[in-house]
Amino acid sequence: MIELKSKREIQLMREAGEILKKVFTAVKPMVVEGIATDALDQMAEKVIRENGGEPAFKGYRGFPKTACISINEAVVHGIPGARKLKQGDIVSFDAGVKWSGFHADAARSWLVGSEDSKKQKLVNVARQSLGAALAAYEAGWRIGDISEIIQQYVEDHGFQVVRDYAGHGIGRQLHEDPQVANYGKAGRGAKIEPGLAIAIEPMVTEGHYAVETLEDGWTVVTKDRKNASHYEDTIIFTEQGFINLTCDEVF
């Protein structure tokens, strides 16, 4: 069941999103060669708690950390630990904040060190595909309109979108209805109405979109072990259009 958000609830989610922006601001400069992924996770938790929030992922379905940190062929749900970043790694960093009973959820992918044009393109396309969908948004859309544009954008740039995982509704719960796939057909799925809150999260693969989960029970990797990237923002739709709660960037 889809729960549309009131103005007060939107404001609380906006405040949760502001904390997430602070997390990204603090963590991004730390993404350098030689740092352990657990140090990034600790910084994320520190920023969230210092700003009065709760790490939404920590303990969720048993997940042990504040952030999901997925490297190279890992798409999502990587567990931070002692692994140190290397030059050229793609680091996908996903975190959530609970604030006054409401959630925000967002992810970024960053490249460690010197420019690698192929890897940078993979990172950029995930971000830009979400931007393309939002830029094209019109009143009367359904979820499938978002899905189709993301898929088309990604495939037009020579990559693929993961089928087994999707974006989602968000609010009082971290995951709510509706599901927001990154592939599909326009005109299908739930209708987008004022008050709808969704986390849109393109997961883009360099090779085939097939994935599998490692023995840790969490880390999702590409079956062909080619690189992946992940980008996510929490979006609220309103009578006037939409608000991106977790990003101030111009796509």
In short, what is this structure?
The chain has 251 residues and is α+β, with helices and mostly antiparallel strands.
Model description:
With 251 residues, the chain is of the alpha+beta class. The chain has a single domain, classed as Creatinase/methionine aminopeptidase superfamily (Creatine Amidinohydrolase, Alpha-Beta Complex). 27% of the residues lie in helices and 26% in strands. The protein has helices at 7-27, 37-50, 117-136, 143-156; strands at 54-55, 67-71, 74-76, 90-99, 102-111, 160-161, 167-169, 176-180, 197-200, 203-205, 211-213, 220-222, 228-230, 233-238, 241-244. The strands form four sheets. Strands 8-7-9-14-15 form a five-stranded antiparallel β-sheet. Strands 1, 2, 4 and 5 form a four-stranded antiparallel β-sheet that branches. A three-stranded antiparallel β-sheet has the order 3-12-11, with no helix packed on it. Strand 14 (233-238) and strand 15 (241-244) form a beta hairpin. The longest helix is centred in the first third of the chain and has 21 residues, at 7-27. The two termini are 31 Å apart. The model has no long low-confidence stretch (mean pLDDT 97).
